[in-house]
Hints:
Elements: H1 14-22, H2 26-34, H3 38-45, H4 50-59, H5 62-69, H6 76-84, H7 88-97, H8 100-107, H9 112-121, H10 124-134, H11 141-144, E1 151-153, H12 158-168, E2 177-181, E3 187-192, H13 193-198, H14 205-208, E4 216-217, H15 222-232, E5 236-240, E6 246-251, H16 252-271, H17 283-309, H18 312-317, H19 325-349, H20 351-354, H21 357-387, H22 390-420, H23 430-451, H24 453-456
Parallel strand pairs: 1-2, 4-5
Antiparallel strand pairs: 2-3, 5-6
Helix pairs in contact: 1-2, 5-7, 8-10, 15-16, 17-23, 19-22, 19-23, 21-22, 22-23
InterPro entries: CBS_dom, CBS_dom_sf, Mg_transptr_MgtE_intracell_dom, MgtE_N_sf, MgtE_transporter, SLC41_membr_dom, SLC41_membr_dom_sf
Membrane topology: Multi-pass membrane protein
Function: Acts as a magnesium transporter.
Amino acid sequence: MGEAYMEEARQLNEEILLKALQEENIDVFRDEFIDSHPYDQATFFMTLEQQQRIYVYYYLSPKEISNLFENLEIEDDEYEMLLADMDPSYAADMLSHMYADNAVDVLNRLDKVQVASYLSIMNPEAAQEIKDLLHYEEYTAGSIMTTEYVAIVANQTVRSAMYILKSEAPKAETIYYVYVIDDYKRLLGVISLRDLIISDDETMISEIINDRVVSVSVGEDQEEVARTMKDYNFLAVPVVDFQNHLLGIITFDDIIDVMDEEASDDYSKLAGVTDVDSTDKNPFSAAKKRLPWLIILLFLGMFTASLIGRFEDTLSQVAILAVFIPLIAGMAGNTGTQALAVSVRSIATGDIEKESKWKLIAREAGTGFITGTTCGILITIIVYLWKGELFLGMLVGISILASLFVATLAGALVPLFMHKLKIDPAVASGPFITTINDIISILIYFGMATMFMNYLVH
Length: 458
């Protein structure tokens, strides 16, 4: 979003704005609206009815609306709706005033015909800048970078560099870092704004440059970029191609959006939902997104039911066994989900790259054994005191120990295996791993009960 709006922007007064819209008083509306923070503007804007929003377009210039648009937090189809309310030339002008990476985010939500239409009537320079970003694959560094940055050369003084910085600052997304390039736009290093300010005017840039610059490849996954910026506490990171040409930069505010998007995506998959961040306006749309996983789990549940049916003879002889099915299956599912969450998080944060995968597996196996042994001993004592059946208590206790141990291992191994196959480990969702562990725990429980039937039947 850039640095044009600071914390001292005044708070928006909705009552005054609504009254100004009702009375069609453009002066009062602009006086109240323009000085408020773009986030507040965007929030207020999305509470308006369609006709009120159209009035806002008349009251504000495309450049002023662009600041608002960069702060909208809406669904993909709502962008198309808002742009449809604008005159096409007004919309194109508004998009051209947005930072290129933010304009690309909006255009990526439209169909190709609409994108081509807006680009054809847009300012040629802005259109070309946006086209250059549109061809990068989605979810890569190239797709989220901005080309609005400040670059200087090494063979100039601090004085001349500051002159360039002042002239480029109004359209740059950030000025905290100034990048140093050669005549072929290859990245040589970086200088912080602080270093420029405290250096003598006649100092050569080559004397104060930091040439140990950390950059990311244009094709790198956005999650990896977010991890790099988090690890190094960067406000921005340069994006380069395979020949180290500086193509753009990725700023901290863009990475915050990426982290939020990736977290929502991973949580959706863990919950077995297509898009948990979506706020659907009708139950049919919400059901459509949730049904695929539920149908898969329905068939897995039927398999679990048929598996129990195979042990019908065991159940008929020792009916008390049925009492403990929910207990064993539930505990196995819960501990499997816990291990799954730890494993997926380790992969997502990159911790798995810093420590051995076998170390993670061994730790989870040890955790599964300790928790399984503790719960197994407790349930053995409880069943014995409740039913007076020591062997039944031991059977349930050993089944819980084995189930929790295997379920914890499965919860850790499945995401690692999927990561090895280049599949998003988050798709090993909580409901999926729970159902799988239900099957494993039932096999262990009834398998042991069948083997030791003679000790259970009196």
